[in-house]
Amino acid sequence: MDDVWQNAMDHAVAVARKAGQMVREALHSTQMDAVMVKSSSVDLVTQTDQKVEKLIIQSVKEKFPTHCFIGEESVAAGEACVLTDNPTWIIDPIDGTTNFVHTYPFVAVAIGFSVNKQIEFGVVYSCLQDQMFTARRGRGAFCNGEPLQVSPQRDIHKAIIAVEFGSNREAQTVDKIFSSLKRIVSIPVHGVRGAGSAAINMCLVASGCVEAYYEIGIHVWDMAASSLIVSEAGGVLMDVEGGPLDLMSRRVLAANNQSIAERLVKEIDSFSPLRDDAPLAQ
After folding, report:
1. Would you say 237 and 245 are in contact if contact means Cβ atoms under 8 Å apart?
2. What pTM was estimated for this model as a whole?
3. Which residues are designated catalytic?
4. Which of 38, 75, 123, 153 maximizes the CB count within 10 A of its CB?
């Protein structure tokens, strides 16, 4: 079965590069892309998101007609977000849509591939940097063909931590987000950063540029591909409360090692968003 999954991965890389070209062309176009909102006024979607997802899914269906899909924009349109044991492509057509809308230069196409609820390969294409991050289970992680390795730093005081704030702007949620941020900055750490793209933040952990990344309010399509890239680069993945990572929980902590991760867990003021696989409202 290995050759089948390698063929699928090769196709994912090719279609991610094609999708990235579509994203770049849209960014450089003089015609303004239509911007719409989903769950809140800061949860954005554009026509390019929808076109890119359609491109990827149609391309994959032609080659692998029996496979399943979880796509960000398909779920937003009302499709169920259910991860089964079947071969499943988990797609974020533009990770960093707000960045895309503002031409902030961190935008990625993310494609994860799951079998038996386990990610077998991940592809993250950082479109504007032309960086292709890839990982295959048990075979390492790479950027443009060069091996990736997480940072060797074990001292939290010398760490850079990446974080994003999600799209929920309810006062109680915002208070918890900034409570966590204040406690982490006060450890103290060297600094806090955020690329505006969960997939890119996690690839930065895998690349050794930052020691950890956490977020509450993330979605499965934001982290499926990049979770494998982190682990194959030698990093650790867990829930923000310290248990095992649950891709459907909308919570993630990725770190270069266990000690950094466990130290951050102590400072994160956690909460539980509605799960990605929660039943659809009737």
Report:
1. yes
2. 0.95
3. 72, 92, 94-95, 97, 222
4. 123
Q: For the chain, first and last CA: distance in Å? A: 39
DSSP-derived 3-state class of residue 255:
strand
- DSSP alpha helices (H): ranges in the chain? 2-28, 47-63, 72-76, 97-102, 171-185, 198-207, 220-232, 258-265
Per-10-residue mean pLDDT, the chain, length 282: 82 98 88 78 85 96 96 88 96 95 95 98 97 98 98 98 94 97 98 98 98 98 98 98 98 98 98 92 59
> Max CA-CA distance within the chain?
52
**Two tokens, residue 136:** 């295959």
Residue 194 DSSP class: -
Cα four-point dihedral sign 62, 64, 68, 74: negative
Query: 180: closest CA among 197, 163, 159?
Result: 163
Per-residue pLDDT at 258: 98
Q: Which of 92, 3, 107 is nearest to 56 (CA)?
A: 92
3-state secondary structure of 235: coil
